[in-house]
Design brief:
Blueprint lengths: L5 H11 L5 H20 L5 E6 H5 L5 H16 L3 E6 L13 E4 L7 E5 L4 E4 L2 H17 L3 H16 L2
Parallel strand pairs: 1-2
Antiparallel strand pairs: 3-4, 4-5
Helix pairs in contact: 1-2, 4-6
C-alpha cells in the first residue's frame, strides 16, 4: 500500500471493491498515492518488506500501469527508502501463507503488529504474539532472495512487460 502509484492503486482497489462509485474509487486511490508520496519523501521510517514473487507477475491495470509501478518500487529501493526482498514462487512453504502483517518498531514505543484482512485490521500488542510475528518475518527473510537478486527479478519482470 505504501509503495503504490495512483494508477496501480486504482486498479487494485477497483478489482477488490467493484461496487465503489467512480468518485469513491478515485478518492481512495488518491489517498493511497498521497500516503505513498509522503513515505517516499520522509527520512523515516525505513520500510523492510518481504513479498511473494507472484505479486510482481500479477497484472493490475494495463501493462503501462504495471511498468510504472515496478519502476517506482525500483526507485524506492535504489534510494534506500525501502528494503525489499522477494520470496520465489517455487518456495511454497513459508510464513507469508499466514497472510499480510506489519511489525511496527519505533525508537520510543513498544513494538506492535498490524494484521489485516479484507474486512478489518487488528493491532496486536501482546509481547508473545509480537515475538511470534517477528519470528515469522525473520523466517520470510530466510527464504527470500537477497536485495540484488530481488532487483534483478523486478527488472526482468519489467523487461517481460516490455516484450524484451
Amino acid at each position: 500500500m505504501y509503495l503504490q502509484t495512483e494508477a496501480y492503486s486504482r486498479a487494485v482497489i477497483r478489482y477488490g471493491a467493484p461496487w465503489l462509485s467512480a468518485n469513491e474509487l478515485a478518492e481512495r486511490a488518491q489517498h493511497r498515492a498521497r500516503r505513498a508520496q509522503q513515505m517516499a519523501k520522509a527520512l523515516s521510517p525505513v520500510i523492510w518488506l518481504v513479498v511473494d514473487q507472484s505479486l510482481l507477475m500479477r497484472r493490475y491495470g494495463s501493462a503501462q500501469v504495471q511498468l510504472e509501478q515496478l519502476e517506482y518500487v525500483v526507485d524506492l529501493v535504489e534510494k534506500e527508502r525501502v528494503n525489499l526482498l522477494v520470496v520465489p514462487v517455487d518456495e511454497p512453504r513459508h510464513a507469508g501463507n499466514n497472510g499480510p502483517f506489519r511489525v511496527i518498531t519505533s525508537a520510543d514505543q513498544p513494538e506492535v503488529v498490524y494484521v489485516e484482512s479484507a474486512h478489518q485490521g487488528q493491532i496486536i500488542t501482546a509481547t508473545n504474539d509480537v515475538g511470534r510475528y517477528r519470528m515469522w518475518f525473520a523466517a520470510l527473510q530466510g527464504v527470500a532472495w537477497g536485495p540484488d537478486e530481488t532487483l534483478r527479478t523486478i527488472r526482468n519482470e519489467m523487461k517481460r512487460i516490455n516484450g524484451d
